[in-house]
UniProtKB/TrEMBL annotation:
PANTHER family: LPS-ASSEMBLY PROTEIN, LPS-ASSEMBLY PROTEIN LPTD. Together with LptE, is involved in the assembly of lipopolysaccharide (LPS) at the surface of the outer membrane. This is LPS-assembly protein LptD. The keyword Cell cycle does not apply. GO terms for biological process: Gram-negative-bacterium-type cell outer membrane assembly; lipopolysaccharide transport. It comes from Ramlibacter lithotrophicus.
Length: 787
């Protein structure tokens, strides 16, 4: 018989009666399907990546080969293209022996083992199939999760999750043709212990080589097989800083529990000394937070001890209880001295580096009623060359709010009450501290329909002050009651339209907002928390032109505006939005902030706004405040983004505040290979665009008014396939005439570890829509490497 004919009729057997019954049932279903209707594929829950233990024990063993002999329920011998399959385990060999009582398989000659996508190949295998205990002699292996591979003298399988690889190599560099090829990086170890349950590898007697040069001899090394957290010493980070000198950090990570961890990161700074840092994080069902602290004993540059501390906590107590929920929120930030923000600008988590918040708040809510009690104290880091006026501490503040809708006649009502003690250094503020209490009551009646809305509203704002010292007028207390009436209204029109060959649903939405607040003398009152609202499309339709409660603007004006939107008729996605608004003032506004001038202009500046998302590649957003008298824009913000695909994004923003600042902000991530026509491969997010490619990354913040760079981060990334290299230059402005410069190096061995400074985190924080060149989006399935 011809060899191909013999292979076509090779025998295949299942060694359990259950499988024979299943085959008969499948044959019966096939006959019925032919008689009734065409066979259709349907999703089956039986195909799954992980097979539960109780199911695995019931699975049959299938064998296949050119010659099969043996005794029922004892032993089976398969020769010539032998195969044994059970669940997610497949064994192929020239000769295969299987003893059913012991569930033991012995394979010889060109042995191929595939266990859930992990592949081993070699000359000899002995394995208990169900428990996955045994050994493999002189195997080559490849792991599914990170596509790593290597070779060893022997692999001992402890169970289905654990194995020990003896005298092993490990790399993720893909083999290329040629007898002299060597991987760019390779780990050699006396033994590697693989634990797929913990998703970690442990190597002993390890040596990491890069480009043939040994770079990291380590007696014992633990590394992740996936992104799962694990305890241990993290790779050291090295940086070069213009203020601190050479920085070396050796972090230790402690995975305390699935919802708690801690990191210790001692750092040696050659110009300063040793900085001892640590961070603790926790996440529970009803609360979460983190604590971070740094201590540098004897800073050689400042000749003093330096320390920093921050803690954040957000949580709820008695959530869902009949008495209502209680929330506890903490945000604490303290440092040792005024120069801390300048010397350690990257260690503070505060958004305002010179104003550090220390706040604790306790809140309670039940139904329509909510109560808040908090204490707020600022730490102000002063600079002799650029002093700042400290904000007021609130020690304490108690506020309550009651909101009720669906009242009789469709009315909606709310009452807000607040008591605050304001404290600050009077030598700096030049006004007395005070106790302030206010009550804001309002009632409204919204009418809404598909094409229009009208909302009249009445407000009453009552405020009382008790001062620690008399005002210039001799007052030790003051009171103020201010009523406000407003009417908000709008229309909505729609039509089908077509622009540039594309169909849209276009809207036209005119809006009119009228407000009247009579004059009440307030300019003699101190200012504790009020500021002029930003002039934008959100604030132009509000009753009070000031934020806070120390100034209630005397207002008699009408705001007119209109917007139009272009909507995709199928998805409802907004392709474009254009808007315009202007205020018409009927009376002068005499209420001002300290040092401010009354407003007498009858027509305000005009607001223009546009947002365009015509295609997913392009996005433009702009707002312009235009003065028709001078014919110039007072404030302008124009931003745009172009992103034609993965790892290609350019964003730019121009910000102008006439007479104060003019800035240009540019960020990008782009393959440099595009310059010489190499467009790369579309491998999807988290996989790069192929080997041998350079990427440019950066963000520049330029002050056009001062004609200089403010903050800068510029870098290069190189993707070699199995390793990535990064070099980043960072410059942060610390004062008007000084800046902190830093060089960051990082070498990433894909699927293994990273060495150097954490440049990735700096790139992700600073470059809008930055993408990692290697990031596992989803875990690979065993069916992607199925035999």
């Amino acid at each position: 018989m011809h060899d191909s004919t013999r292979r076509a009729f090779r025998p295949r057997f299942a060694l359990t009666p259950v499988a024979l019954v299943a085959c008969a049932l499948l044959q019966g279903h096939a006959v019925l399907a032919q008689e009734q209707s065409p066979l259709q594929l349907r999703p089956s829950p039986m195909l799954r990546d992980d097979i539960p233990g109780d199911v695995a024990r019931e699975l049959p063993v299938f064998v296949e080969g050119e010659h099969i002999q043996g005794r029922p329920d004892l032993e089976t011998v398969i020769e010539g293209g032998a195969q044994l399959r059970r669940g997610d385990t497949l064994i192929r060999a020239d000769r295969l022996e299987y003893w059913q009582p012991d569930d033991l398989a012995r394979a010889r000659g060109n042995v191929h083992l595939n266990r859930a996508g992990n592949v081993f190949e070699g000359p000899l295998l002995e394995l208990k199939v169900e428990s996955f205990e045994g050994f493999f002699s002189q195997p080559n292996y490849r792991f599914l999760r990170n596509d790593a591979y290597g070779e060893a003298d022997r692999v001992d399988f402890i169970d289905e999750k654990r194995a020990i690889i003896r005298n092993a190599t490990y790399t993720t560099c893909q083999r290329r043709p040629g007898p002299g090829w060597m991987p760019d990086w390779i780990l050699r170890a006396a033994s590697i212990r693989i634990d797929n349950e913990e998703e970690t590898g442990q190597a002993s007697g390890a040596l990491l080589s890069f480009m043939g040069v040994p770079i990291l001899p380590i007696p014992a090394l633990s590394f992740p097989l996936t992104d799962k957290r694990k305890s241990g010493v993290l790779p050291p980070t090295i940086g070069l800083d213009s203020l601190n000198g050479l920085e070396l950090t050796v972090p230790y990570y402690w995975n305390i529990a699935p919802n708690r961890d801690a990191t210790l990161y001692p750092t040696l700074m050659t110009k300063r000394g040793v900085d001892l840092g640590g961070e603790f994080r926790y996440l529970e069902r009803s609360y979460a937070g983190q604590v971070r602290a740094n201590l540098m004993p004897g800073d050689r540059l400042r000749d003093r001890d330096r320390w920093g501390f921050s803690a954040q906590h957000d949580g709820a107590l008695f959530a869902g209880s009949p008495v209502g929920g209680i929330g506890l929120n903490l945000n604490l930030n303290r440092v040792s001295d005024d120069n801390y923000w300048r010397d350690f600008s990257r260690t503070t988590a505060s958004l305002t580096q010179r104003l550090l918040t220390n706040e604790g708040a306790l809140s309670w809510s039940r139904g329509d009623l909510s109560v808040l009690a908090r204490a707020l104290k600022w730490q102000v880091l002063q600079d002799v060359d650029a002093p700042i006026l400290p904000p007021y501490d609130r020690m304490p503040q108690v506020a309550a709010r009651y909101l009720r809708g669906n009242l009789a006649g469709g009315l909606e009502a709310s009452v807000e009450a607040d008591y605050t003690r304001f404290e600050a250094d009077r030598r700096l503020t030049r006004q007395p501290n005070a106790h302030r209490s206010y009550t804001l009551a309002q009632v409204s009646r919204p009418w809404q329909a598909p094409g229009w809305f009208v909302t009249p509203r009445l407000q009453l704002h009552a405020t009382n002050y008790q001062f620690d010292a008399p005002l210039a007028t001799g007052q030790e207390s003051a009171s103020r009651v201010v009523p406000t009436a407003s009417l908000d209204s709008g229309l909505l029109f729609e039509r089908d339209a077509s622009f540039f060959g594309r169909s849209f649903r276009q809207t036209l939405e005119p809006r009119a907002f009228y407000v009247y607040t009579p004059f009440r003398e307030q300019n003699h009152l101190p200012n504790y928390d009020s500021a002029l609202n930003d002039f934008n499309f959100a604030s132009i339709y509000t009753e009070n032109e000031f934020g806070g409660h120390d100034r209630i603007s005397e207002t008699h004006l009408l705001t007119l505006g209109a917007s139009t939107r272009l909507l995709d008729p199928d998805t409802g996605a907004e392709a474009a939005r254009f808007g315009v608004a202007q205020r018409l003032r009927f009376e002068d506004q005499r209420v001002t902030l300290p040092g401010g001038a009354p407003v007498s202009e009858r027509l305000s500046d005009i607001l223009f706004g546009a947002t365009i998302n015509w295609t997913p590649r392009w996005s433009v957003d702009s707002t312009v405040q235009y003065n028709p008298k001078t014919g110039r824009s007072i404030r302008s913000t124009i931003g745009g983004r172009y992103s034609p695909g993965n790892y290609r994004v350019v964003s730019a923003a121009y910000r102008l505040q006439r007479g104060l600042s003019e800035q240009l902000d540019i960020g990008w991530q782009w393959p440099l290979n595009d310059l010489w026509g190499d467009k790369g491969l579309d491998l999807g997010p988290g996989r790069g665009e192929g080997e041998g490619r350079w990427y440019s990354v950066g963000r520049l913040n330029l002050s056009l008014k001062d004609r200089r760079l403010v903050d800068t981060i510029v870098g290069l990334e190189y993707d070699a396939g199995c390793w990535l290299g990064r070099i980043v230059f960072e410059r942060l402005q610390s004062s008007t005439n000084t800046s902190n410069k830093r060089i960051l190096f990082q070498l990433e061995f894909v699927g293994f570890t990273r060495l150097g400074t954490n440049a990735l985190q700096r790139l992700r924080e600073n470059i809008p829509r930055y993408q990692f060149l290697r990031e596992q989006v989803s875990a690979p399935s065993r069916f992607s490497n199925y035999d």
